[in-house]
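[09:14] KT: can someone run the structure on this one? pasting the chain below
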Amino acid sequence: MVTPDQIMVEIYHSSDQAMWLSAGFMLDDNIDRIKSVQWFRWVIKKGNFMIRLLAIVSANKDLQKELGLRIRSLVEHSRAEVGCLRYQAFNDNQSCDFFFVEEWESKEYLDEHARSAPFADFVDYLKTHGLQVKIHQIEEV
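[09:31] RB: done, structure tokens below
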């Protein structure tokens, strides 16, 4: 017999994205309708499906504040993009280096990000100010 506090779980697999989705359903006291639904998502971390990047932008002190504002805007837009699992930026105040840590569900999503208007605007800003970006594809050890 099913009790009100019992959670039933269904698992779905989408092999084209190597993604698993699980839904947890909580039943109400009368056990005749769903009280709440919680969705959880994670990506299988094997093969070439997930892409992790570390990008480094070095600036001089006079551009640090403006670049930081532009980076915050880029981070906000990037996190909202389909396929973005993680997009964070950090600043080393002593060296004026900015570090991006990115995780994308696939190369296709990363390529879409690279073609997005906010990213293109950011790249144009970097070029205008003669700033270089070093990009490293990284793996967990």
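[09:33] KT: thanks! Helices lie at 64-79, 107-114, 117-128.
[09:34] RB: yep, looked fine to me
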